[in-house]
Amino acid sequence: MNKLGNIAVAIAVTTFIATNLILLYGQKSLIPKYVYAPETERMAAADYAEKLPKEALVVPDTVYTAYVDSDATVEEWLVREGESVTAGQPIAKLDAGRMEGQRSIWQSEQSALEAQESELESTLSQLERERSSAQSGSDSNTNERFGNSSGDNDSPIVDLSVDVTVDVPQEGAYAHAITAVENQLSDIRRQLTVVEAQLEQTGESPSLVSPVEGTVANVHRQGEQLAVDVYALERTILTYAAGEEWQDIQQGDRAYIQAPGLEAAIEGSVDSVSEVEAPESKWLDTYRKLEKRDVSNPLAYYEVRIVPNEDVSTLPFANNVNAVIYTKEAFDAVAVKAEALTDRYMDEATATVINGDGHAVSVPVITPFDWKGQSIITDNLYEGDLVITGPIYDRYIAPPAIILPMPLEWPSREEWKAHDWRDYLRFMLFR
Question: Does the keyword Membrane apply (predicted)?
Protein backbone atom coordinates (compact mmCIF):
# COMPACT_ATOMS: atom_id res chain seq x y z
CA MET A 1 0.00 0.00 0.00
CA ASN A 2 2.76 2.40 0.93
CA LYS A 3 4.56 1.55 -2.29
CA LEU A 4 1.53 2.37 -4.45
CA GLY A 5 0.96 5.57 -2.47
CA ASN A 6 4.53 6.68 -3.05
CA ILE A 7 4.19 6.02 -6.78
CA ALA A 8 0.95 7.99 -6.93
CA VAL A 9 2.49 10.90 -5.04
CA ALA A 10 5.54 10.86 -7.35
CA ILE A 11 3.32 10.92 -10.45
CA ALA A 12 1.22 13.74 -9.03
CA VAL A 13 4.25 15.80 -8.09
CA THR A 14 5.89 15.19 -11.47
CA THR A 15 2.70 16.14 -13.30
CA PHE A 16 2.37 19.28 -11.18
CA ILE A 17 5.93 20.35 -11.85
CA ALA A 18 5.70 19.60 -15.58
CA THR A 19 2.41 21.48 -15.89
CA ASN A 20 3.84 24.52 -14.14
CA LEU A 21 6.97 24.45 -16.25
CA ILE A 22 4.83 24.44 -19.39
CA LEU A 23 2.72 27.29 -18.04
CA LEU A 24 5.79 29.27 -17.03
CA TYR A 25 8.00 28.76 -20.05
CA GLY A 26 5.65 27.79 -22.87
CA GLN A 27 5.05 29.98 -25.91
CA LYS A 28 1.87 31.45 -24.38
CA SER A 29 3.46 32.23 -21.02
CA LEU A 30 3.61 35.86 -19.93
CA ILE A 31 7.06 35.36 -18.44
CA PRO A 32 9.65 36.88 -20.81
CA LYS A 33 12.05 34.56 -22.61
CA TYR A 34 15.63 35.55 -23.03
CA VAL A 35 18.14 34.64 -25.74
CA TYR A 36 21.79 35.47 -26.02
CA ALA A 37 23.10 37.94 -28.61
CA PRO A 38 26.88 38.17 -28.21
CA GLU A 39 27.51 40.64 -31.09
CA THR A 40 25.83 44.04 -31.18
CA GLU A 41 26.73 47.48 -32.46
CA ARG A 42 25.51 50.91 -31.41
CA MET A 43 24.78 53.06 -34.46
CA ALA A 44 26.61 56.37 -34.97
CA ALA A 45 25.67 58.86 -37.69
CA ALA A 46 28.25 60.11 -40.19
CA ASP A 47 28.67 61.07 -43.85
CA TYR A 48 29.78 58.38 -46.29
CA ALA A 49 30.90 58.50 -49.91
CA GLU A 50 32.03 56.11 -52.61
CA LYS A 51 34.86 57.78 -54.53
CA LEU A 52 36.25 57.17 -58.00
CA PRO A 53 39.76 58.58 -58.58
CA LYS A 54 40.50 59.59 -62.17
CA GLU A 55 43.30 61.02 -64.26
CA ALA A 56 42.06 64.14 -66.04
CA LEU A 57 43.17 66.95 -68.34
CA VAL A 58 42.55 70.69 -68.54
CA VAL A 59 40.87 71.32 -71.89
CA PRO A 60 39.13 74.30 -73.51
CA ASP A 61 35.41 74.42 -72.99
CA THR A 62 34.99 75.02 -76.74
CA VAL A 63 37.32 74.87 -79.74
CA TYR A 64 36.53 77.14 -82.70
CA THR A 65 38.10 76.42 -86.08
CA ALA A 66 38.37 79.11 -88.78
CA TYR A 67 39.11 78.14 -92.39
CA VAL A 68 40.66 79.87 -95.40
CA ASP A 69 40.65 78.57 -98.94
CA SER A 70 44.38 77.95 -99.44
CA ASP A 71 47.92 79.09 -98.64
CA ALA A 72 47.75 81.59 -101.51
CA THR A 73 44.83 83.36 -99.85
CA VAL A 74 46.96 84.27 -96.80
CA GLU A 75 49.36 87.17 -97.27
CA GLU A 76 50.67 87.33 -93.70
CA TRP A 77 50.06 85.57 -90.38
CA LEU A 78 49.50 88.19 -87.68
CA VAL A 79 49.61 85.88 -84.64
CA ARG A 80 51.50 82.76 -83.69
CA GLU A 81 50.39 79.57 -81.98
CA GLY A 82 50.02 80.09 -78.24
CA GLU A 83 49.20 83.81 -78.47
CA SER A 84 46.04 85.25 -76.96
CA VAL A 85 43.48 86.90 -79.19
CA THR A 86 40.28 88.87 -78.67
CA ALA A 87 36.98 88.41 -80.47
CA GLY A 88 37.25 90.03 -83.90
CA GLN A 89 41.04 90.35 -83.78
CA PRO A 90 42.71 89.63 -87.14
CA ILE A 91 44.60 86.34 -87.19
CA ALA A 92 45.88 86.55 -90.75
CA LYS A 93 45.95 89.16 -93.50
CA LEU A 94 44.24 87.88 -96.63
CA ASP A 95 44.97 88.59 -100.30
CA ALA A 96 42.54 91.32 -101.37
CA GLY A 97 42.39 89.89 -104.89
CA ARG A 98 41.11 86.58 -103.58
CA MET A 99 38.83 88.07 -100.94
CA GLU A 100 35.69 88.05 -103.07
CA GLY A 101 36.06 84.35 -103.79
CA GLN A 102 36.76 83.65 -100.10
CA ARG A 103 33.75 85.71 -99.04
CA SER A 104 31.54 83.75 -101.44
CA ILE A 105 32.78 80.54 -99.86
CA TRP A 106 31.93 81.82 -96.38
CA GLN A 107 28.45 82.88 -97.51
CA SER A 108 27.83 79.49 -99.06
CA GLU A 109 29.04 77.80 -95.88
CA GLN A 110 26.73 79.98 -93.82
CA SER A 111 23.70 79.01 -95.93
CA ALA A 112 24.58 75.32 -95.80
CA LEU A 113 25.22 75.38 -92.04
CA GLU A 114 21.95 77.19 -91.35
CA ALA A 115 20.11 74.57 -93.42
CA GLN A 116 21.81 71.79 -91.46
CA GLU A 117 20.98 73.51 -88.20
CA SER A 118 17.31 73.73 -89.13
CA GLU A 119 17.19 70.08 -90.21
CA LEU A 120 18.93 68.86 -87.06
CA GLU A 121 16.59 70.89 -84.86
CA SER A 122 13.65 69.27 -86.64
CA THR A 123 15.16 65.81 -86.18
CA LEU A 124 15.79 66.50 -82.51
CA SER A 125 12.21 67.64 -81.95
CA GLN A 126 10.91 64.54 -83.71
CA LEU A 127 13.06 62.22 -81.59
CA GLU A 128 11.96 63.90 -78.37
CA ARG A 129 8.30 63.59 -79.37
CA GLU A 130 8.73 59.92 -80.22
CA ARG A 131 10.53 59.22 -76.97
CA SER A 132 7.81 60.93 -74.96
CA SER A 133 5.13 58.87 -76.69
CA ALA A 134 7.22 55.75 -75.97
CA GLN A 135 6.28 53.99 -79.20
CA SER A 136 8.57 51.00 -79.27
CA GLY A 137 10.00 50.08 -82.62
CA SER A 138 9.37 53.40 -84.35
CA ASP A 139 12.03 54.67 -86.73
CA SER A 140 13.36 58.11 -87.34
CA ASN A 141 15.59 58.39 -90.37
CA THR A 142 17.02 61.58 -91.73
CA ASN A 143 19.62 61.61 -94.50
CA GLU A 144 19.96 65.07 -95.98
CA ARG A 145 22.66 66.47 -98.20
CA PHE A 146 22.95 70.18 -98.69
CA GLY A 147 24.79 71.88 -101.49
CA ASN A 148 25.11 75.28 -103.04
CA SER A 149 25.79 75.11 -106.72
CA SER A 150 24.80 76.85 -109.89
CA GLY A 151 25.56 76.74 -113.56
CA ASP A 152 28.19 79.42 -113.11
CA ASN A 153 31.53 77.63 -112.90
CA ASP A 154 33.00 80.57 -110.98
CA SER A 155 30.56 80.09 -108.11
CA PRO A 156 32.03 78.13 -105.20
CA ILE A 157 30.51 74.78 -104.38
CA VAL A 158 30.12 73.93 -100.71
CA ASP A 159 29.13 70.36 -99.97
CA LEU A 160 28.33 69.77 -96.31
CA SER A 161 26.53 66.65 -95.15
CA VAL A 162 24.52 65.63 -92.14
CA ASP A 163 23.58 62.00 -91.84
CA VAL A 164 21.39 61.01 -88.93
CA THR A 165 20.04 57.47 -88.98
CA VAL A 166 18.30 56.39 -85.82
CA ASP A 167 16.64 53.11 -85.03
CA VAL A 168 14.77 53.49 -81.78
CA PRO A 169 13.20 50.26 -80.51
CA GLN A 170 13.68 51.21 -76.85
CA GLU A 171 14.31 54.10 -74.49
CA GLY A 172 18.09 53.62 -74.42
CA ALA A 173 18.32 53.97 -78.19
CA TYR A 174 16.30 57.21 -78.08
CA ALA A 175 18.74 58.67 -75.56
CA HIS A 176 21.70 57.58 -77.69
CA ALA A 177 20.19 59.09 -80.83
CA ILE A 178 19.27 62.38 -79.15
CA THR A 179 22.80 62.71 -77.78
CA ALA A 180 24.27 62.12 -81.25
CA VAL A 181 22.02 64.78 -82.80
CA GLU A 182 22.76 67.27 -80.00
CA ASN A 183 26.50 66.78 -80.54
CA GLN A 184 26.15 67.43 -84.26
CA LEU A 185 23.98 70.47 -83.59
CA SER A 186 26.55 71.89 -81.19
CA ASP A 187 29.29 71.41 -83.79
CA ILE A 188 27.20 73.12 -86.49
CA ARG A 189 26.57 76.13 -84.23
CA ARG A 190 30.28 76.46 -83.49
CA GLN A 191 31.00 76.51 -87.22
CA LEU A 192 28.28 79.12 -87.72
CA THR A 193 29.87 81.34 -85.08
CA VAL A 194 33.17 81.21 -86.95
CA VAL A 195 31.67 81.92 -90.38
CA GLU A 196 29.48 84.75 -89.11
CA ALA A 197 32.51 86.37 -87.48
CA GLN A 198 34.31 86.39 -90.83
CA LEU A 199 31.34 87.87 -92.68
CA GLU A 200 30.81 90.64 -90.11
CA GLN A 201 34.23 92.19 -90.64
CA THR A 202 34.42 95.50 -92.48
CA GLY A 203 37.28 97.57 -93.81
CA GLU A 204 39.54 97.75 -96.80
CA SER A 205 42.07 95.24 -95.44
CA PRO A 206 40.51 91.75 -95.53
CA SER A 207 41.48 89.45 -92.68
CA LEU A 208 40.77 86.12 -91.08
CA VAL A 209 39.44 87.09 -87.64
CA SER A 210 39.12 85.24 -84.38
CA PRO A 211 35.47 84.39 -83.60
CA VAL A 212 36.01 84.51 -79.81
CA GLU A 213 38.41 85.64 -77.14
CA GLY A 214 40.90 82.90 -76.50
CA THR A 215 44.22 81.38 -77.54
CA VAL A 216 45.44 80.39 -80.99
CA ALA A 217 46.16 76.71 -80.50
CA ASN A 218 47.04 75.23 -83.86
CA VAL A 219 47.42 76.15 -87.53
CA HIS A 220 47.06 73.09 -89.70
CA ARG A 221 45.79 71.83 -93.03
CA GLN A 222 42.42 70.14 -93.25
CA GLY A 223 41.92 68.76 -96.72
CA GLU A 224 42.62 71.56 -99.20
CA GLN A 225 41.91 74.29 -96.65
CA LEU A 226 43.99 75.92 -93.95
CA ALA A 227 42.46 75.67 -90.49
CA VAL A 228 43.16 77.73 -87.37
CA ASP A 229 42.02 76.30 -84.01
CA VAL A 230 41.17 78.88 -81.33
CA TYR A 231 40.67 77.69 -77.75
CA ALA A 232 38.01 79.60 -75.82
CA LEU A 233 39.16 81.13 -72.52
CA GLU A 234 36.85 78.98 -70.39
CA ARG A 235 38.50 75.80 -69.15
CA THR A 236 36.91 72.53 -68.17
CA ILE A 237 38.24 69.26 -66.81
CA LEU A 238 38.05 66.27 -69.13
CA THR A 239 38.31 62.64 -68.12
CA TYR A 240 36.95 59.40 -69.50
CA ALA A 241 34.78 56.65 -68.03
CA ALA A 242 35.53 53.09 -69.01
CA GLY A 243 32.59 50.84 -69.78
CA GLU A 244 32.36 49.44 -66.24
CA GLU A 245 32.53 52.95 -64.72
CA TRP A 246 29.95 54.62 -66.94
CA GLN A 247 26.97 53.32 -64.94
CA ASP A 248 28.38 54.77 -61.70
CA ILE A 249 28.93 58.37 -62.85
CA GLN A 250 25.92 60.66 -63.05
CA GLN A 251 25.51 64.27 -64.12
CA GLY A 252 25.70 66.49 -61.02
CA ASP A 253 28.01 64.18 -59.05
CA ARG A 254 30.33 66.11 -56.76
CA ALA A 255 34.03 66.09 -57.65
CA TYR A 256 37.32 67.42 -56.30
CA ILE A 257 40.27 68.52 -58.42
CA GLN A 258 43.90 68.71 -57.34
CA ALA A 259 46.88 69.82 -59.45
CA PRO A 260 50.20 71.65 -59.15
CA GLY A 261 49.38 75.34 -59.42
CA LEU A 262 46.30 75.11 -57.21
CA GLU A 263 46.71 76.11 -53.58
CA ALA A 264 44.27 73.43 -52.45
CA ALA A 265 41.81 70.94 -53.89
CA ILE A 266 38.84 72.70 -55.43
CA GLU A 267 35.30 71.42 -55.69
CA GLY A 268 33.37 70.96 -58.91
CA SER A 269 30.61 68.85 -60.38
CA VAL A 270 30.11 66.50 -63.30
CA ASP A 271 28.64 68.59 -66.10
CA SER A 272 28.09 65.87 -68.67
CA VAL A 273 28.55 62.14 -69.22
CA SER A 274 28.54 61.20 -72.88
CA GLU A 275 26.31 58.35 -73.99
CA VAL A 276 28.34 57.69 -77.13
CA GLU A 277 31.88 56.40 -77.35
CA ALA A 278 34.59 59.04 -77.40
CA PRO A 279 36.17 59.78 -80.80
CA GLU A 280 39.88 59.25 -81.22
CA SER A 281 41.74 62.42 -80.27
CA LYS A 282 44.94 63.64 -78.68
CA TRP A 283 43.03 63.97 -75.39
CA LEU A 284 41.89 60.32 -75.38
CA ASP A 285 45.32 59.10 -76.43
CA THR A 286 46.95 61.06 -73.58
CA TYR A 287 44.36 59.81 -71.08
CA ARG A 288 45.07 56.18 -71.99
CA LYS A 289 48.79 56.72 -71.37
CA LEU A 290 48.14 58.40 -68.01
CA GLU A 291 45.58 55.89 -66.75
CA LYS A 292 47.62 52.79 -67.67
CA ARG A 293 44.88 50.26 -67.11
CA ASP A 294 43.56 47.25 -68.94
CA VAL A 295 39.96 47.44 -70.08
CA SER A 296 37.76 44.67 -71.40
CA ASN A 297 36.48 46.82 -74.27
CA PRO A 298 39.02 49.28 -75.73
CA LEU A 299 36.24 51.17 -77.56
CA ALA A 300 34.16 51.78 -74.43
CA TYR A 301 35.55 55.15 -73.36
CA TYR A 302 33.05 57.92 -72.68
CA GLU A 303 33.77 61.63 -72.19
CA VAL A 304 33.13 62.99 -68.70
CA ARG A 305 33.39 66.75 -68.28
CA ILE A 306 33.81 68.32 -64.85
CA VAL A 307 33.10 72.00 -64.26
CA PRO A 308 35.19 73.46 -61.40
CA ASN A 309 33.48 75.85 -59.00
CA GLU A 310 36.54 78.11 -58.94
CA ASP A 311 38.74 79.71 -61.55
CA VAL A 312 41.37 77.36 -63.00
CA SER A 313 42.86 79.80 -65.49
CA THR A 314 46.21 79.38 -63.72
CA LEU A 315 46.39 75.87 -65.18
CA PRO A 316 47.61 75.61 -68.78
CA PHE A 317 45.72 73.64 -71.39
CA ALA A 318 46.58 69.92 -71.46
CA ASN A 319 47.76 70.04 -67.84
CA ASN A 320 47.30 66.74 -66.00
CA VAL A 321 45.13 66.95 -62.88
CA ASN A 322 43.90 64.43 -60.34
CA ALA A 323 40.12 64.23 -60.03
CA VAL A 324 38.00 62.36 -57.52
CA ILE A 325 34.34 61.83 -58.40
CA TYR A 326 31.89 61.11 -55.58
CA THR A 327 29.71 58.53 -57.32
CA LYS A 328 27.54 57.79 -54.27
CA GLU A 329 26.99 59.83 -51.13
CA ALA A 330 24.94 59.48 -47.95
CA PHE A 331 24.72 62.23 -45.35
CA ASP A 332 23.89 61.70 -41.68
CA ALA A 333 23.63 57.96 -42.34
CA VAL A 334 24.68 54.92 -40.29
CA ALA A 335 26.84 51.95 -41.24
CA VAL A 336 26.49 48.33 -40.17
CA LYS A 337 28.36 45.15 -41.10
CA ALA A 338 27.12 43.93 -44.46
CA GLU A 339 26.65 40.37 -43.15
CA ALA A 340 24.34 41.64 -40.40
CA LEU A 341 21.61 42.38 -42.97
CA THR A 342 19.23 39.74 -44.30
CA ASP A 343 16.70 39.53 -47.14
CA ARG A 344 18.76 41.83 -49.35
CA TYR A 345 17.19 42.84 -52.64
CA MET A 346 18.57 45.76 -54.65
CA ASP A 347 18.73 48.63 -52.12
CA GLU A 348 16.39 47.05 -49.56
CA ALA A 349 17.30 44.77 -46.65
CA THR A 350 16.31 43.79 -43.11
CA ALA A 351 18.21 44.56 -39.92
CA THR A 352 17.64 43.11 -36.43
CA VAL A 353 17.35 45.83 -33.81
CA ILE A 354 16.89 45.68 -30.02
CA ASN A 355 13.88 47.86 -29.29
CA GLY A 356 13.08 49.84 -26.15
CA ASP A 357 11.53 46.76 -24.47
CA GLY A 358 14.69 44.74 -25.00
CA HIS A 359 13.23 42.60 -27.78
CA ALA A 360 14.90 41.71 -31.07
CA VAL A 361 12.73 42.99 -33.90
CA SER A 362 13.22 42.96 -37.67
CA VAL A 363 13.36 46.40 -39.27
CA PRO A 364 13.26 47.07 -43.05
CA VAL A 365 16.04 49.44 -44.12
CA ILE A 366 17.32 51.19 -47.24
CA THR A 367 20.97 50.57 -48.12
CA PRO A 368 22.02 52.38 -51.33
CA PHE A 369 25.63 51.14 -51.31
CA ASP A 370 28.33 49.30 -49.40
CA TRP A 371 31.48 50.97 -48.15
CA LYS A 372 34.59 49.17 -46.83
CA GLY A 373 32.68 46.04 -45.89
CA GLN A 374 29.80 47.93 -44.30
CA SER A 375 26.33 48.62 -45.62
CA ILE A 376 25.31 52.27 -45.52
CA ILE A 377 21.78 52.73 -44.13
CA THR A 378 19.89 55.89 -45.04
CA ASP A 379 16.42 55.09 -43.73
CA ASN A 380 14.84 53.39 -40.69
CA LEU A 381 18.07 53.04 -38.68
CA TYR A 382 19.21 55.99 -36.63
CA GLU A 383 22.00 57.12 -34.37
CA GLY A 384 21.80 55.31 -31.03
CA ASP A 385 19.96 52.22 -32.32
CA LEU A 386 21.40 48.91 -31.09
CA VAL A 387 21.76 46.47 -33.98
CA ILE A 388 22.48 42.75 -33.59
CA THR A 389 25.39 42.01 -35.91
CA GLY A 390 25.93 38.33 -35.03
CA PRO A 391 23.86 35.20 -34.45
CA ILE A 392 20.94 35.05 -31.98
CA TYR A 393 20.77 31.77 -30.08
CA ASP A 394 17.30 30.19 -29.64
CA ARG A 395 15.83 32.64 -32.10
CA TYR A 396 12.68 30.55 -32.49
CA ILE A 397 11.15 32.67 -29.73
CA ALA A 398 9.35 35.61 -31.31
CA PRO A 399 10.04 38.32 -30.46
CA PRO A 400 12.94 37.29 -28.24
CA ALA A 401 14.12 39.38 -25.34
CA ILE A 402 17.87 39.79 -25.45
CA ILE A 403 20.56 38.94 -22.94
CA LEU A 404 23.65 40.94 -23.82
CA PRO A 405 27.22 40.07 -22.82
CA MET A 406 27.89 41.34 -19.29
CA PRO A 407 29.12 43.73 -18.32
CA LEU A 408 28.37 46.00 -21.22
CA GLU A 409 30.61 48.73 -19.83
CA TRP A 410 32.94 48.99 -16.88
CA PRO A 411 32.51 52.10 -14.72
CA SER A 412 35.47 54.43 -14.65
CA ARG A 413 37.63 54.77 -11.56
CA GLU A 414 36.18 58.22 -10.88
CA GLU A 415 32.63 56.83 -11.03
CA TRP A 416 33.06 53.93 -8.59
CA LYS A 417 35.16 56.00 -6.17
CA ALA A 418 32.36 58.55 -5.98
CA HIS A 419 30.08 56.04 -4.16
CA ASP A 420 30.57 54.07 -0.94
CA TRP A 421 28.89 50.90 0.33
CA ARG A 422 25.93 52.82 1.81
CA ASP A 423 24.86 54.01 -1.66
CA TYR A 424 24.85 50.45 -2.97
CA LEU A 425 22.92 49.18 0.05
CA ARG A 426 20.35 51.96 -0.27
CA PHE A 427 19.92 51.16 -3.95
CA MET A 428 19.32 47.43 -3.34
CA LEU A 429 16.85 47.99 -0.46
CA PHE A 430 14.83 50.95 -1.66
CA ARG A 431 14.97 50.96 -5.46
Answer: yes
